[in-house]
Amino acid sequence: MVRQPVPFNVLGKMLTALISALLGGYVFKLLHIPIPWLLGPMIAVLIGSNVTKERYVWPTSIRNIGLIIVGYTIGLSMTGKALHEMGVQLPYMLLMTLLLMLLCALLAYIVSKVSGINYKTALLGSIPGGLTQMVILAEETEGINLTIVTVTQVIRLMMIVISVPLLVFSPLLGNHKAVDSTIQPIVTASASWGQLMPNIFVFAAVCIVCALVGNKIKFPTAYLLGPAFGTAIVQVLGLHGPALPSSLINVAQIMIGINVGLMLKPSQLTNKLQTISLAIGSSLLLLIGAYGLSMIFIKLQSVSKSTALLSLAPGGMDQMGIIAHEINANLSIVAGYQLFRTFFIFFAVPPMLRLLFKYTGARKTVPKRQS
């Protein structure tokens, strides 16, 4: 029997996703919306993939290439001086991270009381910056609504990615492209392709190897942090890392934006209105809380408002790093705080939550004494 050709193959679906992303990015660029090549593709693919079912595909491997590029950019900011500064900042990093976690716990309690969703589900949906880790933990924990956790996490991520750039570029935090006075820009628009040679080959090899090895040993967000650490180590050893052209940064944003846009699938959600409303509301409150913490941060440290907000914003380090690059914020501080919270969430939060759930579960199963 002759096999019939697939009417809309994987390559065609990838092309559809790419065309939608480019159109979205171009429209956002014309409208002068912040980080257009991240937000434009994300919104365009989100809308397109939910209007035309099963017509969009974007391999994770392509997203990973974008993460490697952003990881390299973050690694460029981790000079010896910047790493020393991060060491000095450790007590503040721990303080701000704990305050943010307490805020998440409080918001989860409010959501559970208002909606009737059990507290464990609400809490796992509220923890910021650890989508993959929280979903895995939700799968392993009894009594968790996995769908609610996943959708809440994705909506929170998208709310932060959309809201933070608008807030950062607003008059509330400063003017467009304001440069943080504490650091020189790491990546500039004047970087050209010719300036990459020959060092870029060494850094490309290091970034790819670090990403693959990190993924093999299950390092958190390996395709982002592996290249960042590898680049930092090579620079400390004395080899200069060339800045990337803005066009390559835009390509990386498109690769990541398409993937984020495909993560949210409203059709798979029950009680859509309630869950989405609560997710948006809690995300908004979390953002307001992060803004409040950033005001405390600037009182403790001599950084700009934009750097403080991006350091504490409960989004992904890749998105916050891209925004920090766009406005020439202190990328080393932003990356340091986001990195610390990432490690804290990946390594400290799951054991703490397991102990909490075990303790609360044990209390519920203890029989009451007869009076």
Automatic annotation (TrEMBL):
<feature type="transmembrane region" description="Helical">
    <location>
        <begin position="64"/>
        <end position="84"/>
    </location>
</feature>
<feature type="transmembrane region" description="Helical">
    <location>
        <begin position="34"/>
        <end position="52"/>
    </location>
</feature>
<dbReference type="GO" id="GO:0016020">
    <property type="term" value="C:membrane"/>
</dbReference>
<dbReference type="GO" id="GO:0010468">
    <property type="term" value="P:regulation of gene expression"/>
</dbReference>
<keyword id="KW-0812">Transmembrane</keyword>
<feature type="transmembrane region" description="Helical">
    <location>
        <begin position="7"/>
        <end position="28"/>
    </location>
</feature>
<feature type="transmembrane region" description="Helical">
    <location>
        <begin position="276"/>
        <end position="298"/>
    </location>
</feature>
<protein>
    <submittedName>
        <fullName>AbrB family transcriptional regulator</fullName>
    </submittedName>
</protein>
<dbReference type="InterPro" id="IPR007820">
    <property type="entry name" value="AbrB_fam"/>
</dbReference>
<dbReference type="Pfam" id="PF05145">
    <property type="entry name" value="AbrB"/>
</dbReference>
<dbReference type="InterPro" id="IPR017516">
    <property type="entry name" value="AbrB_dup"/>
</dbReference>
<feature type="transmembrane region" description="Helical">
    <location>
        <begin position="154"/>
        <end position="173"/>
    </location>
</feature>
<feature type="transmembrane region" description="Helical">
    <location>
        <begin position="339"/>
        <end position="357"/>
    </location>
</feature>
<feature type="transmembrane region" description="Helical">
    <location>
        <begin position="221"/>
        <end position="241"/>
    </location>
</feature>
<keyword id="KW-1133">Transmembrane helix</keyword>
<feature type="transmembrane region" description="Helical">
    <location>
        <begin position="90"/>
        <end position="111"/>
    </location>
</feature>
<feature type="transmembrane region" description="Helical">
    <location>
        <begin position="193"/>
        <end position="214"/>
    </location>
</feature>
<keyword id="KW-0472">Membrane</keyword>
<feature type="transmembrane region" description="Helical">
    <location>
        <begin position="247"/>
        <end position="264"/>
    </location>
</feature>
